[in-house]
Predict the structure of 3-hydroxyisobutyryl-CoA hydrolase.
Amino acid sequence: MSDVIATIEGRIGCITLNRPKALNALSLGMVRQITQALLDWQQHEQVLAVVVRGTNKEGPFGAFCAGGDIRFFHQAATSGNPQLEDFFTEEYRLNHLIHTYPKPYIALMDGIVMGGGMGISQGASVRVVTERSKMAMPETHIGLFPDVGGGYFLSRCAGRLGEYLGLTGHMLQGEDAVHAGLADGLVASGKLAHLWQTLIETPFENGEAVERWVRTRFDHLQKTGLPHRAEMDAAFAMPHVNDIVQQLESASDEWSQDTAKTLRQRSPLMLHVVLEQIRRARTMSLADDLRMERDLVRHCFSLRPVVDSETVEGIRALAVDKDHSPQWKPARVEEVDAAEVAAFFVSPWPAHAHPLRELT
C-alpha cells in the first residue's frame, strides 16, 4: 500500500497519509505524491475541494503527520546523499502550493501535527483540530529551526506567541491551537469519519459551499484563551535570546522557571537563529520566507562540517543513539557568536540560481 493514498471521491480530492508506523512522517516520495495529486486536481473540473488526513495503526485519523523523516536527514547528511537537498526544496515548494492553492484545502489535524505536518496544514483554507491534536514546531530540540513556512505562520500569531512557540517547541492541544490562531475550529475526533463520508457523498455546488459546510461542524470551545499570555509577551519581546532567558530565570513564577529550563535544553545557537528568523519573517511574503528558510536549512547541514552540525547532533541524540544528551556547540546561549548567527542569513545562492527562485 502506498504511503500516500490520493483519490477523487464525489467532488472531493482525498489525500490520506498512510505511513502509520512512522506517524506519517514525510519522505521525499510522499512529498512528490502529494504535490502531484494537487497539481493534477488544480484544473480538474470534478474536484471542488481537497481534504487531507492521516492514519494511525488502527485506521484513518488518530495521527496526522509527525514531520519530516529525521532519520533520513541524519543518514543523508552523514553519507552526503544529494536527496537531502531535494527533500527540502520540494517540501517547501509543496508548502507554497498549499498556501496558494486555488481550491479549498481542508486539513483534518487529528493527533500529532508537528514540523512538516504543520507545513502541509497551515496553508489550508480550513484547519480542523480535535481534542487529540498535539501541535508543535519542536525543531530547536533537534538543532533545527521551525521551517516549512514556520517563520511566516508563527510570526503572524498574536503578540510574541510565535517567538515563544518557535523557541520552546511548546505543544498545543486542540483548543489551544484555535486560540493561538493556528487552527480554525475544533471537531470532536469521533465525528471525523462521518464528516469525511459526508464530504464525499454530498453534491456540493462549489468549493465555497464545501468550506462553509465544514465550518458549520465546529464544536463550541470550552476555554476562552491561552494561559500566561502576559508573561509570554513580556519575556519574548526582549531584543535578544540572552535577555529572554535572563528575564525568565529572574522571575519567581513556575511558568517562567519551567520555560527557562526548556530553553536551556535547546540548541543555544539555533535559539538565536530562530529568534532572528521569526522577526525577519514578520515583514516577509511567504515566498521570501521560504527562500530564507531554504538558505537556513542548507546552513544547518553545511555551514559547519557535518560532525559539528547542531542538526546532525540533535537528531543523533533524539532518534539515532537516543541518549537524549545532545552536545551543543556552544553549550550556553551566552556563548553564541553573533557572527555565526549572521552567517545563517547569507544565502549560499545568487538570486537567479536559488532553488526556490520561481516562487511568488
